């Protein structure tokens, strides 16, 4: 297992197997935060982790959350735009090798 630090507060543990460099050696970790979304793409090479891409986008979801825990349309659109960007980069990675965590804003909103 390898520990991958995605952001200062999120560490993802990835189990790595010795395989050829194919899509099965690619991994992604995504942090859907209250103010920014982070994505880290890595691949396993000879038992170690090689960072391929690190993306951070400000989405400011928390600023769009009202007292009733409803997200504004603008905040949702910022989040969707970022997720579309992430989806483009995730095409070659098996879903079982993608880990996603979300902060309170996404867990609370309706």
Automatic annotation (TrEMBL):
<dbReference type="InterPro" id="IPR043129">
    <property type="entry name" value="ATPase_NBD"/>
</dbReference>
<dbReference type="GO" id="GO:0015949">
    <property type="term" value="P:nucleobase-containing small molecule interconversion"/>
</dbReference>
<dbReference type="InterPro" id="IPR003695">
    <property type="entry name" value="Ppx_GppA_N"/>
</dbReference>
<protein>
    <submittedName>
        <fullName>Guanosine-5'-triphosphate,3'-diphosphate pyrophosphatase</fullName>
        <ecNumber>3.6.1.40</ecNumber>
    </submittedName>
</protein>
<feature type="domain" description="Ppx/GppA phosphatase N-terminal">
    <location>
        <begin position="42"/>
        <end position="108"/>
    </location>
</feature>
<dbReference type="Pfam" id="PF02541">
    <property type="entry name" value="Ppx-GppA"/>
</dbReference>
<dbReference type="GO" id="GO:0008894">
    <property type="term" value="F:guanosine-5'-triphosphate,3'-diphosphate diphosphatase activity"/>
</dbReference>
<keyword id="KW-0378">Hydrolase</keyword>
<dbReference type="InterPro" id="IPR050273">
    <property type="entry name" value="GppA/Ppx_hydrolase"/>
</dbReference>
